[in-house]
Amino acid sequence: MKLPMKHFLLLIIATQLSGCASLGKGMAEAFLEKQQSADTRVCELWGKPFNGLSPFLDNKQGKMKVLMVHGVGDHLPGYSTQFVEKLAKELDLPVMSAQYKNITLTSRIEPGKNLGNLRINRLLSKDRSKELLFYELTWSVITAKQKEVLAYDNSGEYSFRRAEVNNLMKKFSNDTGPDPIIYLGESREDILVSFGQSFCWMTKSNWNDLPDDVMQACSFNDDSAAKNILIDQYAFISHSLGSRITIDGMQRIASLLDQRDADFTQALKNKEIPIYMMSNQLPMLQLGRKMPEVSNQKAAYCQANGEKYNQRMVAKTPIIAFSDPNDLLSYAIPHGFVEKYLDSRLCIDVTNVNINVATILDAFGLGKFANPIDAHVGYDTDDRVVSLIAKGIGNKNIAKAVKDRCHWVETID
Description:
17 helices
């Protein structure tokens, strides 16, 4: 594990401040090497067993399809490349399509309106018997224009007045802070339409049917979407604000389809669609929001003998919530939160994953610290996070990285 130079410099400074300058550079480097040699980062899980993506790659009738939804901050298409490569390695899918397919998303109501980019990649096993279609949604073009009001603060006119580390933190804040605020305003509907269009393309088309390098709207109102959702398997991977977008987006889709397409709606009611949430922010993003239309009725909607079972949105939504305690923008999902604040028709079960994705260092007796930015953005490159998404926990296919380095407490109803 490579230690960033900024950590090294901080430790040298800490040495000076604590009156230990006599240790010298050599002893400081030896101290750092010792801390890096043993990975003692925490990985703890509380929840029910889950299988990950691996078992669904053997789907002979349909396909395994995964949609990734980014969180706060400006992103460019291809932001998920490192994660996809690590996931493909963990799932033993060494064959990849030579070219991505890209769709510029737009609205059926407002054709020509840019609602972001959907990039699709095809991953295969060596014998071509296993296949995964990976969809990457980049929606930040919707909020980028509004964030230009803060661009002056990143210019040299203001930034040179700040200390170097503070300037880095301010740029990070200017890039990420406005997005949750913007999401509460007029852009929220556009972002949710962007998500809905992405899910539509997931359900409607297989690799050979997908368009490429076009701006085009998708419609659920044809036979292919309902037919595919019966046989395909789906999963979402989200980061920070992307988790709220995914939950809200699914609720929006279900409310619209309930009025339009009975076949699709019925097929969706029988699906189990997990959401792997990195840097989970659902509790914070609930602040200031209205309560859901339906809450505290999970038994009525999600149990087969429940009086409202036929009105559920999906059969089950397992949420696997990854949170680094040193991530200042991340929160575990507390007991009772789902029942009170999330729609009962989603039939949600939660597994909380308390995991250190950032390295924790001892600053020569001044206290332990971890870079909060690393703790916020490091989930999708962490081997244990990737392994849990790929192969789950509580099953015979559990990955070695998880088996050796994670502690799981199984919960029951």
